[in-house]
């Protein structure tokens, strides 16, 4: 891509919670900058998407201006959304963020928008499509390696499934930076598991078909020396933008191109 006018715009979801900066201690939308860097270093433009009141029309209006969607990490998904009571170790739900991201996913999938899910983002995608989650992995695998705590990321060896989109992006295996105490249990409709770790935990899923919908349980933004996942969604977004170009751009944008 040889100019900002040709770079795709990717919406990146954000947190909404209490945050401190200087003398301020307020409810704020924020996102670790490494997510932004992952997209921009891969050739994309970032539009931040803070949680807010939503309905399908609002989600569509937001997505009209985007070429791709990145669902980021964060608090546990509300277990009520997949029909379970909360586990004692499950976070207090951020229901406004859940509703916002569920709406974005639903409308993004309907229009064929490229999607990359990261950690919580993989769980949101799975639950949005009718899947369920293991609420506390230590109960399943017998240890807390997947989330050591105190912001310490452990490295797990991930094996991909041959022939999948994920395998075409990152090869047959990778060292993944993990920080999750939950994981995918039952797969959502249309999803296939595309990577597993040595404990048999599902570490990635993707949607069957031509649309780029890939989600990983680990944190690729923690290893920006390896941009393959970010590059994959940015390239898919660029192709999406190219295919919808005449009708998907505003008259003002077309005027700038003619100038």
Describe the structure.
The protein has 259 residues and is an alpha/beta fold. It has one domain: Rossmann fold (3-Layer(aba) Sandwich). Helix content is 32%, strand content 25%. It contains 8 helices and 13 strands. The chain has helices at residues 33-41, 56-63, 95-111, 120-128, 137-141, 165-170, 228-248, 251-258, and strands at 9-13, 15-21, 24-30, 45-49, 68-71, 115-118, 133-134, 154-160, 173-178, 183-184, 191-197, 202-207, 213-216. The strands form 3 sheets. Strands 4-1-5-6-13-12-11-8-9 form a 9-stranded mixed beta sheet, sandwiched between helices. Strands 2-3 form a two-stranded antiparallel sheet. It has a two-stranded antiparallel ribbon with strand order 7-10. A hairpin with a 2-residue loop joins strand 2 (15-21) and strand 3 (24-30). The radius of gyration is 18 Å and the shape is globular. Residues 248-259 have low confidence and may be disordered.
Write the layout of secondary structure elements.
Layout: E1 9-13, E2 15-21, E3 24-30, H1 33-41, E4 45-49, H2 56-63, E5 68-71, H3 95-111, E6 115-118, H4 120-128, E7 133-134, H5 137-141, E8 154-160, H6 165-170, E9 173-178, E10 183-184, E11 191-197, E12 202-207, E13 213-216, H7 228-248, H8 251-258
């Amino acid at each position: 891509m040889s100019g900002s006018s040709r770079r795709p715009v990717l919406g990146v979801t954000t947190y909404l919670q209490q945050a401190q900066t200087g003398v301020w201690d307020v409810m704020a939308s924020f996102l670790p900058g490494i997510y932004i860097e992952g997209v921009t270093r891969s050739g994309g433009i970032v539009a931040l998407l803070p949680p807010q009141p939503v309905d399908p029309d609002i989600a569509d209006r937001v997505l009209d201006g985007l070429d791709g969607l990145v669902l980021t990490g964060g608090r546990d998904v509300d277990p009520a959304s997949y029909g379970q009571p909360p586990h004692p170790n499950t976070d207090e739900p951020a229901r406004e963020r859940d509703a916002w991201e569920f709406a974005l996913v639903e409308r993004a999938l309907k229009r064929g928008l490229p999607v990359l899910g990261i950690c919580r983002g993989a769980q949101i995608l799975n639950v949005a499509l009718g899947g369920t989650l293991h609420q506390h992995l230590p109960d399943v695998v017998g240890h807390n390696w997947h989330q050591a705590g105190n912001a310490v990321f452990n490295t797990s060896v991930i094996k991909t499934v041959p022939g999948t989109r994920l395998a075409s992006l990152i090869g047959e295996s990778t060292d993944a930076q993990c920080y999750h105490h939950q994981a995918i249990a039952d797969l959502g409709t249309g999803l296939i598991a595309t990577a597993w770790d040595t404990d048999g935990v599902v570490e990635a899923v993707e949607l069957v078909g031509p649309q780029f919908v890939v989600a990983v349980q680990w944190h690729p933004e923690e290893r920006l020396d390896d941009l393959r996942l970010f590059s994959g969604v940015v390239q898919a977004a660029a192709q999406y933008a190219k295919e919808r170009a005449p009708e998907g751009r505003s008259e003002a944008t077309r005027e700038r191109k003619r100038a």
